[in-house]
Amino acid sequence: MRVIDRWTGIPLTFLLTLILKPWERFMLRRNRGSQPDVSRTLFIELSEMGSAIIVDPAMKKLKAERNAELFFVIFEDNAKSLNILGTIPKENIFTMRVNSLANLAIDIFRFMAWCREKRITTCIDLELFSRFTALLSAVSGAASRIGYSTHHDEGCYRGDLITHPVRYNAHTHIVKNFMALTNTALGLNNKDYSTYPINDNEIVLDQVTSTESELDSVREKITTIYPDFKNQRIVLINPNASELLPQRRWLAEYFAEVMTALLNTHDDILIMITGAPAERADADKLLRQVNHARCVNSAGVFTFEELLPLYQLSTVMLTNDSGPGHFSAVTPLKVYVLFGPETPALYGSLGNAENFYLALPCSPCVSAHNHRKTSCVERPCITGIKPKPVFDRINTYLTQIPTQSI
Hints:
It contains 15 helices and 12 strands. By secondary structure, it is an alpha/beta fold. The protein folds into 2 domains: 201 residues, Rossmann fold (3-Layer(aba) Sandwich); 189 residues, Rossmann fold (3-Layer(aba) Sandwich). The strands form 2 sheets. Strands 3-2-1-4-5-6 form a 6-stranded parallel beta sheet, with helices on both faces. A 6-stranded parallel beta sheet has the order 9-8-7-10-11-12, with helices on one face. Helix 4 runs parallel beside helix 7 and helix 8 packs across helix 11. It is elongated and about 75 Å long.
């Protein structure tokens, strides 16, 4: 993906800039600095499932203040994340396939037709300096295109296809960076800079409450993998992370050490290893390391739609820096997130979460400016987080919460 984005994306964005800028200025008579028409606004976020949750306050602000109809384009495999809060109607979501270059090429043309059918007026590119999404924004037909700009910073060239650039701030949480794009769409910012203040009370996620039948369905599935389930307190373990950045994974033996210690300390907990169906084999390896009757492998057992009721039934979750830390933010679940090559200052969960982060001098080593690429193999930022302090904090929380609330 990085190779294609660099070697194909750079020349394509350059060529499209040469074509699009004079066409818009002289033929279409468009003023690049004019107030965007946000009546039909498209958000682009392809590859990060968690971002579909984090961007929700920004999307809701645009909808509330201008009654904008919202649209979204995302990779097909990540589209389910938009269903968690339901801010975007299903008929307003366009999905792109990435299982082959041929399908991707077909979907680009489908996307162009779809945008014109939906009469998209403004496009907001949430991706951090992706040339591919800059190209999608340009071919969407939207008169106003809002996205991140390096401004006076070097590198991250992706043409001059954005009509309303916003300087990306690498020192501010991504939720406020997303909100800055929306504020520009609303005409609140001063040119390229996000000068309009963003108050913390704007950064609020809706909470999702599952029905009793949804909770019962999840309870039944738990019983199928652990027949002795009697509403024990559930501790979820998510040992995986996105394949796009495997450096975020904590060591499996560290997970096993924490899980074993928790099981030996609390006789009223059930530990469930979570994950997608493709992660079941790795979860089985971890299960064998722990080798305890109250530890089960639930990878692939629950559908994506069943994650929220599962989180509501659970007491605590330990996870790598990945999607579940963000999905759980719409529930009261207590979550502990392990951060390594990235930082919670930028990507921390908006929910009931605490982070483990060493903040080494080299951290974070991946960012928007290097397209999240790192050559570090030893990963001291994540392997340096030892099991004992992780166990101590989770153990303290479990001791304070003696009974299951559901």
